């Protein structure tokens, strides 16, 4: 369950922001997870609920999924990542380190592995709300 | 929008006493061999040691160690396998030793990902095998790893040393600790690297002769530890100059 390690990072980062913004209590944390990394929403949600520090007691974690857009640097083609076209081992490798996508995925138009992950790579903290 | 991963990195590394990046301005000077020999020697001397191959586009330490089919375990993060007594991490577990053509932003992201999720446990030393130059990997380690120290490798060549001089200038200007300089693949007894090292105010750690046995020792820990290169590293470790 490597989602647990990511959940710890989310809590640590949210805690840091809460301190910077002098929030006494955190009520809502919005997290975006990219399809490429394929983070399991339920596991992440569970890990977050287990890791809640005291000032997060009443916090809700909203997890939204973002599609992954890839853009070829060689020919300019843009396409959506689709894990169904890949084997189980490959999907798992990309789950741990999304950048190895460059080992397994080629531009469907020109065959180049030199593409940009323009959106939906991994995990992002979108916003945090609370009371001062 | 905030990338949460960087916040947890120093927490992940907090049970490691020393974190040493084996680095150089140039490629092909022996960073990977020195890093691996150093990690193995420290481990043989009774320390708990990790080795992290950060040369993502040209990884080599798995070949030097002869890593076969080791894979990390997943438990609240990634737990690297123990290979030849080293807690060993490399991107090859995920690229399956195929080409990983990565731009700067990708190497940076992969580095942050692995630092954020790898559970090293308690270690006396984490040795990091670096890519050449003062690009993304060096800048990211300086930015993200509070306790990073550098050990610099050069050859007697002016072309190698001048790149090292630039790296040293960068590290010194940012007040990043430099343990010292190792001169590798020496074929004469010219003392210029030693002299220049002193002028930079740095410790000259070791001179390692060119040793044809090094190539035969790749993939074989016992042979590697029998090379002159490893013996010089052993002397360095024993001298407490680290
Ligand atoms: N002391 C040495 N004697 C002989 N060959 C060496 C020595 N040190 C390194 N080499 C060889 O030089 C090459 C580059 O070494 P490597 O460790 O891969 O360098 P780097 O990591 O700096 O690119 C390899 O082929 C290695 O076997
Ligand atoms: Mg190398
Ligand atoms: Zn293309």
Count of the separate structural domains of chain B: 1
Low-confidence stretches of chain A: none
Put simply, the count of helices of chain B is: 11
- Characterize the overall form of chain A: elongated
Please indicate the count of domains of chain A: 1
CATH superfamily placement of chain B = P-loop containing nucleotide triphosphate hydrolases
Morphology call of chain B: globular
Class from helix and strand fractions of chain B: alpha/beta
Query: What does the largest sheet of chain B look like?
Result: 8 strands, mixed
Q: Give the rounded overall mean pLDDT of chain A.
A: 96
Look up the CATH topology of chain A.
hypothetical protein PF0899 fold
Strand percentage of chain B? 15-25%
| First-last Cα distance of chain A | 34 Å
SSE layout and pairing:
The complex is a heterodimer of chains A (132) and B (242).
Chain A: H1 3-20, E1 25-34, H2 41-51, E2 60-66, E3 69-72, E4 78-80, H3 88-96, H4 101-104, E5 115-119, E6 123-131
Parallel strand pairs in A: 1-2
Antiparallel strand pairs in A: 1-6, 3-4, 3-5
Chain B: H1 5-12, E1 16-23, H2 31-44, E2 49-53, H3 61-65, E3 73-74, E4 78-79, E5 82-83, E6 86-90, H4 92-95, H5 104-117, E7 123-129, H6 136-144, E8 148-154, H7 158-173, E9 178-186, H8 192-199, E10 204-209, H9 213-216, H10 221-225, H11 228-238
Parallel strand pairs in B: 1-7, 1-8, 2-6, 2-7, 8-9, 9-10
Antiparallel strand pairs in B: 3-4, 5-6
Helix pairs in contact in B: 1-5, 2-11, 5-6
The structure holds adenosine-5'-diphosphate, magnesium ion and zinc ion.
């Amino acid at each position: 369950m490597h989602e647990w390690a990511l959940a710890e990072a989310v809590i640590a980062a949210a805690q840091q922001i809460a301190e910077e913004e002098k929030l006494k209590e955190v009520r809502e944390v919005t997290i975006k997870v990219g399809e490429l990394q394929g983070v399991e929403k339920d596991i992440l949600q569970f890990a977050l609920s287990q890791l809640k520090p005291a000032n997060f007691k009443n916090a809700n974690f909203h997890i939204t999924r973002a599609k992954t857009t890839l853009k070829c640097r060689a020919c300019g083609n843009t396409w959506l990542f689709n894990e169904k076209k890949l084997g189980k081992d490959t999907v798992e490798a990309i789950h741990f380190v999304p950048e190895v996508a460059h080992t397994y995925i080629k531009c469907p138009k020109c065959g180049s592995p030199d593409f940009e992950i323009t959106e939906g790579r991994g995990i992002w903290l979108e916003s945090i709300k609370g009371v001062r | 929008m905030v990338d949460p991963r960087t916040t947890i990195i120093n927490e992940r590394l907090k049970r490691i006493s020393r974190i040493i990046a084996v680095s150089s301005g140039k490629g092909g000077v022996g960073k990977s061999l020195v890093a691996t020999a150093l990690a193995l020697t420290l481990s043989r001397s009774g320390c708990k040691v990790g080795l992290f191959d950060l040369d993502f586009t040209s990884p080599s330490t798995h070949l030097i160690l002869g890593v076969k089919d080791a894979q990390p375990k997943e438990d609240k993060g990634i737990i690297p396998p123990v290979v030849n007594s080293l807690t060993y991490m490399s991107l090859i577990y995920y690229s399956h030793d195929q080409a990983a053509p990565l731009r700067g932003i990708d190497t940076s992201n992969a580095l942050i990902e692995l630092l954020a999720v790898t559970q090293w446990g308690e270690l006396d030393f984490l040795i990091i095998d670096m890519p050449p130059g003062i690009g993304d990997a060096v800048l990211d380690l300086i930015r993200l790893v509070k306790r990073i120290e550098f050990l610099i490798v050069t050859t007697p060549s002016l072309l190698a040393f001048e790149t090292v001089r630039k790296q040293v200038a960068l590290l010194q200007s940012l007040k990043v600790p430099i343990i010292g300089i190792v001169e590798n693949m020496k074929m004469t007894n010219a003392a210029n690297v030693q002299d220049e090292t002193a002028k930079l105010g740095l410790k000259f750690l070791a001179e390692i002769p060119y040793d044809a046995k090094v190539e035969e020792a790749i993939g074989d820990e016992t042979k590697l530890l029998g090379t002159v290169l490893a013996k010089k590293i052993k002397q360095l470790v024993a001298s407490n100059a680290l």
